[in-house]
Amino acid sequence: MTATIDYGNLMHRAMRGLIQEVLENVRDNGLPGEHHFFITFDTQHPDVEIADWLSDRYPGEMTVVMQHWFDNLTVTDEGFAVTLNFGDAPEPLYIPYDAIKTFVDPSVEFGLRFETQEAEEDEEEAPEPSIVEDIAEIAEIAEPEKKDADVVSLDSFRKN
């Protein structure tokens, strides 16, 4: 039997612990200065709790922003709960740390990414954690996916 040190799992736990500590600090003291977070998570994770209309709208993953308005931040060893505003409709969310794909604070160009490796023979592997070091990569993570806008020609509405 060969014993090895599971560095990936150890780093995974350490990075989740970092997120927990940051959120505990925000819970206790609020967001300092210009700090704000973009948190992308797997909406299909079995322990995620979000409104049905949100899971319908974001069937794979969702990015939430904790910045100007959030309420009821609760932080545990397994995850966090927070109420966020979606178009003037407050919605409670529960996000386990294991569901987080990225955690970015663009105000200080800091980001964490948890990437899932392709599993062989249908075996699930833990996401590989990494610290995001490239500024362009942080900006890419921090910008939610933009949808193409519809372009409407105003010529058809003009009076001759």
What is the element layout, followed by pairings?
Layout: H1 7-29, E1 37-42, H2 52-57, E2 61-66, E3 70-75, E4 79-85, E5 90-96, E6 100-105, E7 110-115, E8 128-132, H3 135-142
Antiparallel strand pairs: 1-2, 1-6, 3-4, 4-5, 6-7, 7-8
Give a written overview of the molecule.
This protein is of the alpha+beta class and about 160 residues long. It has a five-stranded antiparallel sheet with strand order 2-1-6-7-8, sandwiched between helices. A three-stranded antiparallel sheet has the order 3-4-5, with helices on one face. The protein contains three helices and eight strands, in the order αβαβββββββα.
Short characterization:
The protein is of the alpha+beta class and 160 residues long. 23% of the residues lie in helices and 31% in strands.
> Beta-strand level of the residues, as a percent range?
25-35%
Compute the gyration radius: what is it?
19 Å
Form type: globular
Determine the number of helices (DSSP H or I, runs of at least 4 residues): 3
| Alpha-beta classification | alpha+beta
The counted number of beta strands is 8
Instruction: Encode the helix/strand succession as letters.
Output: HEHEEEEEEEH
Helix content: 10-25%
Mean pLDDT: 79
Determine the N-to-C terminus distance: 86 Å
Main pleated-sheet profile: 5 strands, antiparallel
User: Which spans of ≥5 residues are poorly predicted at pLDDT below 50?
Assistant: 117-124, 146-158
Widest sheet: strand order?
Answer: 2-1-6-7-8
